[in-house]
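EI: anyone free to look at a 379-residue chain?
SC: sure, send it
EI:
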Amino acid sequence: MTASPFPEQMLPPWRRAVLKVGSSLLAADGGGLSPRHALGLAQFVSANVLAGREVVIVSSGAVAAGRAILPRMDDSGAAMAARQALAALGQAQLIGLWQRFFERPVAQVLLTHDDLRNRRRYLNARATLNELLRLGTLPVVNENDTVSVDELKLGDNDNLAATVAALVDADVLFIATDIDGLYSADPRRDPAAQPIMQVRELTAEVLAMAGGSGSSAGTGGMRTKLEAASKAARLGIETILFNGRDGDVVRALAQGRLHGTRLQAAQSREAARKYWLRHAPVEPGVIWVDEGAVQAMRGKGASLLPGGITGADGDFRRGDMVEVRCRLASGEASVARGVTQYAASDVRRIVGRHSRDIESVLGYNYGGNVVHRDDLVLL
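SC: here you go
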């Protein structure tokens, strides 16, 4: 039985999760990577995958791995290019560490925050990750530290993990850390600090409980973890903080039992996404549809396919939020709004076509849906 100061509570039900693992859990003393704590986390992932769930890992550790390859390179205070070189050297080692624990293929995905802020690149990243999960692989995401100057300085893979959780429509974000969870104060400095089992709202008072960075290997502290949890909560995603160094805690987690902190979301994942779709700014332009498409979207919850489209106005781009309208006998009506997978010029070329014809007409395709039902809200 675990000796964790955090009493046991049950995990919320989930189907898809993101697991963030920091450098402090992977770095070996003296440089390089150690499987010591990674093995238990990998067993947690495997147990859940065998149970029919899906997991994406967001893993730090490339710079730490690079130090073992060139141990004489001192990157403390060195030029950013030196740290970027260490990240480039260590990235293959990091992926190799994770691959040794899994029989299924491990896929490397390198992202920057810019990839996720740009709507078109966001859609491309989401499509890739969803396809990797569909193929039964294990995606391992890391910041593209060789080019992400600002993010490398901050070491903010916690916020990246929250963004990836939104990207893949995760139900929960697991953050493995090197302390037991959130305390009322920094337990390494204040012996009277009390464990916080659940947080229903991330207020300024809760954020004030966060201490600074806790290890020399990683640069993210409890503050960035709470910021990540706040971002996830706004999107309807719960965050779980737990001690990834405690084998008993990790084994209990695989059985749905948590010894750590549960940071709850204010609303459901679906409700948060629908709210965003309903209120995000719409780009100038309209996709026009026929009554059959309206009935399919309203009656069956269907995606918008090219066969139901009659035209497109404006010059919107792939990834833009656009309005969907229909010309009825009683006049024009706004039917829906959503994120388009195709630019206006492409939509006009595939009007009325079957989804299987998209590639032959355009020379490429981003899938058979012009607006996927997950990116669509009815008005």
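EI: The two ends are 52 Å apart (CA to CA).
SC: 👍
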